[in-house]
Write a structure and sequence with these properties.
Blueprint (H helix, E strand, L loop, with lengths): L1 H29 L7 E8 L5 E9 L2 H6 L11 E15 L8 E6 L5 E5 L10 E14 L2 H4 L7 E3 L12 H24 L1
Parallel strand pairs: 2-3
Antiparallel strand pairs: 1-2, 1-7, 3-6, 4-5, 4-6
């Protein structure tokens, strides 16, 4: 019995060291180079008419997006991280070196939530795909989306979500087409009158 307890103690210590050996190189990669994040606030308007406020950190640069919420052990209930991208396209996320389970909200250029991946698994290397073109991803504590009845179609209110920032949007294209058509009509009229 004594040998079994000794074996278990050794096994627990070995597993702890193995876990540290796996996480330590990743932390060393960022050691002394951890990104800092600007902070802000955003709101989510749900289909039931409620508005939920969140304090966020903003990941704009490639280094900030690569680090994200890695190595964090906790996050306040009303906190999150907003990943902003330069281009609207399909995105993939993962949970490498992330200790807390998250809800990932994939957001289009107008601020509409197009997909939610709930309760992601810490440390998973599985790709979590947006399922279509998105401009941003909002990470919240796992369970927040279901607790607050946040779903696809709900709207994220934040200054980055407007049609001028993303000139490829349908609304902006329609404005440009209308403008171009008016210029062509104006040019044709000028030529007829000349």
């Amino acid at each position: 019995m004594r040998d079994f307890k000794g074996f278990l103690s050794s096994l627990v210590i070995a597993l702890a060291l193995l876990g540290a050996a796996i996480v330590a190189p990743a932390q060393a990669q960022f050691a002394g180079q951890l990104a800092t994040f600007e902070t802000g606030e955003l709101s989510i308007e749900t289909a039931d008419g409620r508005t939920h406020e969140f304090r966020i950190e903003i990941a704009r640069t490639p280094d900030q997006r690569a680090q994200g919420l890695m190595f964090r052990r906790h996050m306040a209930p009303d906190a999150g991280m907003l990943f902003l991208f330069e281009r609207v396209e399909e995105r993939g996320m993962w949970m490498k070196n992330t200790f807390i389970p998250l809800d990932m909200l994939f957001i289009d250029e107008t601020g509409r939530i197009v997909r939610i991946e709930q309760r992601t698994v810490p440390h998973s290397l599985r790709a979590i795909l947006s399922g279509g073109p998105v401009a941003a991803v909002l990470e919240l504590n796992a369970g927040t989306a279901s607790r607050l009845a946040i779903g696809p179609g709900d709207r994220v209110i934040y200054p980055a979500f407007n049609e001028t920032k993303f000139p490829g949007t349908l609304q902006t294209n329609r404005r440009l087409e209308t403008f171009a058509a008016s210029r062509i009509l104006s040019a044709s009229t000028s030529q007829v009158l000349a």
